[in-house]
Amino acid sequence: MDNFINLTQLITPASLIPLFPLLGFFITALFGKQLKHFSGWFASAMILLSFGLALHLFLNLPANQSLNFNLFNWIKWGNINLAFGFLIDPLSLVMLLVVTGIGFLIHLYSIGYMHHDEGFSRFFSYLNLFIFFMLLLVMGNSYLIMFIGWEGVGLCSYLLIGFWFKNDSYNDAAKKAFIMNRVGDLGFLIGMFFMLFYLGGLDFETVNANAINYPAGSSLLVAITLLLFVGAMGKSAQIPLYTWLPDAMAGPTPVSALIHAATMVTAGIYMIARSNLIFALAPFTMEVVMWVGVITSIFAAIIGIKQTDIKKVLAYSTVSQLGLMFAALGIGAFESGMFHVVTHAFFKALLFLGAGSVIHAMGGEQDMRYMGGLGKYIRITWLTFLIGTLAISGIFPFAGFFSKDEILAASFGANKTVWILLSISSMMTVFYMFRLFFLTFSKSFRGTEEQKHHLHESPWTMTLPLIVLAIFSVGAGFLGMPAVMSSTHYFSQYLAPVFEGSKSLITEHHHADHGTELMLIGIALSAAAISIGLAWSFYVSKNQIPEDEPQGLSKWVANKFYIDELYNTIIVKPIMVISDILFVLVDKLVVDLIVMAAAWIVGFTGRTLRLVQTGNTGFYIFAMVIGMMVLMFIQLVY
Amino acid sequence: MLSLTLLFIPLAASLLLLFSRGGLSRNLALVLTLVQLGFTAYAYTVFNAEGAVPFDFLRNWSAKPFINVHFSMDGMSLLMVILTNLLLPLIVLSGYNREIERPHIFYSLMLFMQFALNGVFIAFDGFIYYIFWELALIPIYFISFNWGGQNRTQVTLKFFIYTLAGSLLMLFAFLFLYNGTPTHSLDWAVLISNKACACNQTWLFWLFFIAFAIKIPIVPFHTWQPDTYKTAPTQGTMLLSGIMLKMGTYSLIRWLIPVVPEGVKEWQYIAIGLSVAGIVYASIIAIMQSDLKRLLAYSSIAHVGLISAGIFAMNLTGMQGSLIQMFAHGINVVGLFFCADIIFNRTQNPNVEGLGGIRLVAPKFATWFMVIILGSVALPLTNGFVGEFMLLFGVYEYNTWLSVFAGLTIILGAVYMLRMYQKVVLGEPIMENMVFPDLYWNEKVVLISIGILIFFFGIFPNTIIELTEPFLKTITK
Q1: Which element (helix H / strand E) includes B165?
Q2: In terms of CA atoms, which chain A residue is nearest residue B402?
Q3: With an 8 Å Cβ cutoff, is B355 touching chain A?
Q4: Between 20 and 30 A from A468 (CA), which of A245, A615, B32, B417?
């Protein structure tokens, strides 16, 4: 009974969580002009309030319990009731803390970063709106509420990528992101139809309860999960729907950090983790998820090696890391996938914000070929960026080490080929990250004198988030230490209730013995060391700088394997041509011609018959006689 | 008597307006449409409290042929009446700072149109319904003909003859029904009962279907529409796209499906196939349209294609979705054409290609334009989403693959809308010396009202469902 009272007491704070950012959106949107730079502080405060409430829920929600409540009936017809409600459980709490926590830090950072921008208030209103939708996405107690957030964050992503709307290539990138996401959303939508039709509802509880009546591998569940995965591919930028994410770097850097690295793009992973039961019941889909993840991970890592734009490297790295997370989900290591979501959120946000600080110092320059030697000018950025780089490289004891190690260990148990491929992808990650680090911070400065003169460390609102994120990039990993180091894995233990149902369905093969575990750690760390060594020898010892016009294979890689050009040729262009053809040939010519022909026949008949009306009585009598004869003839014959 | 009052106010207003002049006309028109809106709100409360009874009006008009003047009300009728009377003040207000010649005749015709539209939606006798259906055509013909743009003679004539041909088919259908029904009655309640006509339902289906398909319009009966929307003055286009085409979709549910159930069942697959094909066809054409109004016209064809697909799915979900979407589309399309009008009015450029940079000089306009586009591309929490979700689910219940094909609208819709928005509103200005004042007060009122409606019905669609579900349940069983 005590617990029951406790839970209902949590309903109000839970409902308030998304309301603060929504309020922030309205205030900053309507009174942006009056508030001026205060709107940044106001917007940040709203997120901090949400974070406080999320923390409150985290501390007060009894273990092994969840809070599931409906606020009102949204769409209710026939015998279907689609309610608007929230679910607070360990999984959504983890996401809530990440979204509001990192969200707050990035808001704070943006106050410094966007200080001189004329759209300052507008920027914060979009950011608040984004947080609102992201919170709906992770708090919704049904696929439909998740979908509201899902499309809503897509909208905010569109608005923020195209934030500098005067530049048409930015607008193109924004439009591309929205449309590609919509392709995925269609999959999500049809998946929901299947659930609504066969599983009797869209809320997680009903879906799960009815799904277990179907045998594992039933075609219905495979269809549903594949369709949901199409949605996840769009949102989380997996092959073939990944090309929007690198272009999305057109947005201001804090946006890249928040939306296109730490939170929104991990929505696909969250969705599958949330649906772990139905995915576990569809082994075929799990296989697909795993392979798409593995292939994306490697493919994006290869492209990342040859990029020269500092943000593009990080973008491909994000695609690659997301692939790694999907691979983890695909082999059934849901909590490892989620663990990597969390650690990745910290270090990737850190890296992007660090890159933002670099770009800020460089006066807008993003090309690493014109950087170099920045380490001595911007110490805090340099140090925190190094921590981020070590974390993503999976060096002990940084956060990425623990989560990546877990995924690799799980894949080793599940499928050796996958393990090898993921290890290669991780090696490449270490290489391009240190390539980026060395090119940016080591050796001597390669920019103009003017830029050199201008180099400065960022204000405290920007460096403070860097420091906090750096601390978490070191510390977050200890939440989930491998069995060989510690007997409790806090993170998995906390999430265990969420994945309880699917545990029994997944063949448990990722508990390697300590010896194997140590061996795997050894292999991973030596591979990382080799990669760092290689990067060092290329970019520090030999002081190489990426060439302007690479040749041969490098050219293909630098041009991202011409995938954008391919999509343009086989999809975009044909649709444009078909559009013109349908309009000019079919609509204007054929369809309208038939209509006009019908009208013409009527007119022609009228004009022709008019000629018969001559006014000549003799002709009328003649016609009458002929007519009578014809009638008599017909009478006789029949 | 409430029904008669609903008709009387706009009719009297229409006559009264003939005696006004100049600036008084538009003010008077606005006040009178607001009076009608107020009365509609009152009617809504009465309907909620007492149901259809206070609205029933039944008098015999002629004994041979047997014709009754029969007006009544149910949830669906009321919804359409609300839509009509809600949009009219907005449409009047949207023309406030435009130069309109002979405004007293213009607004008089507009209110006459309102009278006819109200009549169509509350007529429960086929004959009376037919009269109002035809009456609605007359004012819009004169509006387009006298106040239209280029090629108006040719375009309006085509529109008039095309829709009139459709009406002729409908007249035949009613004649068949009248002769075939033992009691010789066109009363709706009789026609939908078992006592009705034992006529050939295939013939009836096609006569009604083509008549409504032209009005809606369903591809391939649509070629009158893009040109007419482009040529008609914007207020006329708003009337046509916002309300008048709903006469067609409304009539599918009111007259075709319950009166000709067997025929519909037999030919359902063609009707739904044409509707869905039309969605994709019109969406693809919309992508490359260079004329802004014509682009919106094609997008409208795509949207109503989905509405009719949902209706022909013949299940509760699809029909409920169609009603929600009719209401939503009415609001959104009026907003979209108004935005197009604002742009044309300030730049004299009808072409998507030559525009750009408006965001820079008119941020308020750009924002509200975006909001309406969001409704149109069916973002969740806007009115467009609920309708589209239910319509697609209705089609899904009929056939899975068809719903995937119809669902392409959520991708293609984003393509043509965002492409258009980018070319027209974003980027650097292309036109030299572009003078583009931000919204005037009347434009603000119209766009903000539309924006509020978009979110209100996106968040509380149950207001529409509760109103219309009892009726829909009787015809879907």
Answers
A1: helix B152-180
A2: A190
A3: no
A4: A245
B406 touches chain A (CB under 8 A): no
Task: Please report the pLDDT score of residue A512 as a whole number.
Answer: 66
A632 and A531 within one domain: no
Under an 8 Å CB criterion, which residues of A touch B? 73-78, 80, 147-148, 151-152, 155, 158, 162, 165-168, 171-172, 175, 178-179, 182-183, 185-186, 189-190, 193, 196-197, 575-576, 578-580, 582-583, 587, 591-592, 594-595, 599
Same domain, A515 and A631: no
Tell me: do A551 and A581 sit in the same domain. Answer: no
pLDDT at A517: 82
How does pLDDT run across A586-638, given as a tens digit for each residue? 888 888 788 888 878 888 888 888 777 777 888 888 888 888 889 888 877 77
pLDDT of residue A52: 94
Residues B23-46: pLDDT tens digits? Answer: 888 899 999 999 999 999 999 999
Largest CA distance in chain B: 71
Residue A572's CB: how many other CB atoms inside 10 A?
14
Encoded amino acid at A388, one letter: G
Domain final position from A511, A538, A558:
A558
Distance (Å, whole) CA B213 – CA B222: 8
From the CB of residue A288, how many other CB atoms can be counted at a distance below 10 Å? Answer: 17
ipTM above 0.90 for this complex: yes
Query: What proportion of chain B, given as a percentage, has pLDDT over 70?
Result: 99
Q: Do A541 and A624 belong to one domain?
A: no
Number of domains in chain A: 2
Confirm or reject contact between B372 and chain A (CB < 8 A). no
| Reported confidence tier of residue A2, pLDDT bands at 50, 70, 90 | very low
Q: Mark yes or no for CB contact A77/B320 under 8 Å.
A: yes
Residue B200, pLDDT > 90, answer no
Among residues A532, A558, A584, which one ends one of the domains?
Answer: A558
Chain B residues with CB inside 8 Å of A185's CB?
410
Whether A591 and B317 lie within 8 Å, measured CB to CB? no
The answer to whether the beta carbons of residues B96 and B23 sit under 8 Å apart is no
On the question of pLDDT at A118 being above 80, the answer is: yes
Q: What is the pLDDT of residues B276-303, one digit of tens each?
A: 999 999 999 999 998 999 999 999 999 9
The verdict on residue A66 lying in a domain is: no
Cis upstream peptide for A574 (omega within 30°): no
Structural domain including A457 reads 287-558
Q: What is the pLDDT of residues A313-324, one digit of tens each?
A: 999 999 999 999
Nearest to A475 by CA among A487, A491, A497, A493: A491
- Does the pTM surpass 0.95? The reply is no
Chain A contact for B379, CB < 8 A? yes
pLDDT at B279: 94
A512 in the same domain as A605: no
Contact state of A168 with B410 under an 8 Å Cβ cutoff: no
Residue A335: pLDDT above 70? Answer: yes
Q: How far is A364 from chain B (nearest CA, A)?
A: 20
- Nearest chain A residue to B415 by CA distance is A179
Residue A352 lies in a domain: yes
Question: Do A336 and A455 fall into the same domain?
Answer: yes
Name chain B contacts of A582, Cβ cutoff 8 Å: 281, 284-285
As a whole number, the mean pLDDT across chain A is 88
Helices A334-361 and A90-113, axial angle in degrees (round to 10) = 0
Q: Verify that A462 and A376 share a domain, yes or no.
A: yes
8 Å CB contact between B413 and B375: no
Residue pair B163/B224 in contact by the 8 Å Cβ criterion: yes
Contacts of A166 in chain B (CB under 8 A): 357, 360, 426-428
User: Quick check: is A115 in a domain?
Assistant: no
To the nearest whole Å, the CA of A598 is away from the closest chain B CA by 10
Exposed, middle or buried: residue A13 (CB in 10 Å: 0-12, 13-18, 19+)?
middle
Q: Are residues A547 and A579 in the same domain?
A: no
Cα–Cα dist B196/A71, whole Å = 47
